[in-house]
Design a protein that fits this description.
Number of strands of chain A: 12
CATH topology of the largest domain in chain B: Aspartate Aminotransferase, domain 2
Radius of gyration of chain A: 21 Å
Strand order of the largest sheet of chain A: 2-8-7-6-5-3-4
Radius of gyration of chain B: 21 Å
Largest sheet of chain A: 7 strands, mixed
Number of domains of chain B: 2
Helix content of chain B: 40-55%
Distance between the termini of chain B: 18 Å
CATH architecture of the largest domain in chain A: 3-Layer(aba) Sandwich
Oligomer: heterodimer
Largest interface: A-B, 63 and 66 residues
Number of domains of chain A: 2
Amino acid sequence: MTTPASTVERGLAARARACDAASDEGLLDHPYPLDATAAEEVNPPRFIREAAKAALDRGETHYTARHGIAPLRTKLAERATRDGFPVGPEETIVTNGAAEALYVVLQTALRPGDTVFLVGPVSPQVVALATFLQLRVERLRLDQAERFPTGWDSSAGLLLVAAPSAVTGQMPAAPQLRALIDRALDAGATVVVDRSRAWCLYRDAGYGFDPSLGGRCITIGSFSTAFSMPGWRVGYVTAPGHQVSAPLELKQAMSICTSPIAQFAALAALEGADVWLAERRSFFAARRDALLRAGVPLAPADAWPAQLIDARPFGDDDIALAAQAAEARNVRVEPATRYGAELRGYLRIDLRAPRQALDAVAEFFGALAT
Amino acid sequence: MTVNIFELMELAKAKPNAISLGLGDPDFATPEHIVAAAKAAIDDGRTGPVEPTGLLELRQAIGRKLARDNGVLVDPQSEVLVTTGGQEALFLLVQALIEPGDEIIVPDPRYTSYDDAILLAGGRMVLAPTDEAHAFELDPDEVEARITPRTKLLLLISPNNPTGGINRPETVRRLAEIAQERDLIVIADEIYEKFVYDGAQHLSIGSLPGMRERTITLNGMSKTYAMTGWRIGYLAAPAGFIRAAASLKQMVNIQAPTVSQWASVAALDGPQDCVEEMRRAYATRRAYLMEALSDLGFSFGTPWGGLYIWANVSSCGIDAVELSYRLLQEEDVLILPGVGFGERWKDYVRITLLQPLEQLELVVERLGRVVERYAVRK
């Protein structure tokens, strides 16, 4: 008879073991006394919570349509269309957060051995997911459109670009983004635009994507950051008609549907978005400006809450600098090379962090400057 | 007339007001104390992110439930994973355990939504037949005959969807012996455990000596507490399995919804009378349908558990897909034909117990009319 340890060892698939090892960092992370990288818990606004309770009062506690409740899909499709990604409600899938959206798209668009092109710095979780799916990962800069050869098998590659980036808060430059997507689509690659931070732009000047390209792209997104709803697990996929059924089927096989309580909360979020998002923009802009006034060398950002600090004047070893911040001020900042080698010399903070943690960052850079 | 299941599903979309005996979605409202707990969580601001493995309070409640109801002992810190519904629980497990070419023994007929997860992982489903004459109980000899060097997993679903068959305690004990002798990992899907009838008993295989280290118990809130929309399932298993499934969980959707997790704590720790009330209602409906369907000439293995009757309609001489299609088109009643649960089940339909008795009476009346209209009695 086998021992328990050998049963488990024999039981796990190789790719699960690899994924398990890769996830150690996230799972075993210990908090610092002050953490400038983690969001202070904020509840969604009252109108969203009340909508969730109203859904409970109506008995909205059973399965919904697999692709989500119709009014939410309609609102999401209208917004995507307005921003240059023309789709209808039937081409919209409500998911359990953006992570599920990305998973169902990658899993169904690509096969093991295919290539996912990641533009700019990305979360290690995205790389871990690609590794689990046995994909080849290629990192691209925005100006590397020539990396896409023409005449590809359409299932062989996928370009993933975040606009704006959840890592840097920066929007890709429009002309370069257009050139890259145009080239990728012409080459036969699937293009996925991650719009999880699109609600978080500081300037409410519209998204302005070219519909002739946007209509050929898949988008994914999330309510978590913009509406303080990470625990509610609502995201979405929009996709051109011929690309929507495969991710929908996988989503159905995996989690059936998204909680209707959360879906009605998300619907309320969309209906009341303007006032709430204006408040959030002001709040984070004020925090950003306070750090700048205190002498923290912030990199330009188009969206909250991720914020890079350009620490290169103090040396390009961001890992050593982060350790120095922990030592000197008991505050955690992230070495940005965690997200990509191109961010060497940058540190990363989250403007949702506790005020004391951001103050400690300001004090640290104040001391460095003197 | 020749129709297929896809045409039936298309027709179902066009008839949203039909009486549905299709989905496995309880018609009862989620009990009030559970809804109240969700509202309290929202009011108190307990809606933020939690660990990918799930809210500790919920994992502890699951640990207590498994010890109390099932005799399955687990450490909530390391041996429980909260998932976004029971279906995701199986999905994660299969992705974590199956290597391409690995075999998993699955009772036939089966809940075919599990097929996608198995095939996606490159696994090979090996079907272990069950039959009407034995009330669709899994036969340990049939299982044993299908074990090969590539067999890694044995999936037990008891009570079963779609058949309502259960594995009696003596059968479970024999299956446990086989699993130990042949070094199999057992996934025990116990999502319908609370709904057994006429004195039938549910035994959790994970409670048996020597099985703790090779059993993954899968369960959830959806059926027991009429909480399908809340999307909470769970796995209880040795820590290594949980750790692997949790890593995947974190990648594919981070965590189960927080409000639903607090509601689930109330469900597991709160009064259980609501479950017995639902069970009694299902038992009444089941008794009614068994008699009425027999009167129509349908046969079935006794459904000792679950929420379905798996009825053989071949005595009418109508193909089960056609019968389902006619019933929906002409009488606005949705039932699912057996081919949706495995290719060889063309004579069967799945009828749920998930409508009030008066609705079921209407269903039987309408079903009777279709049979009368089209039957070619054998």
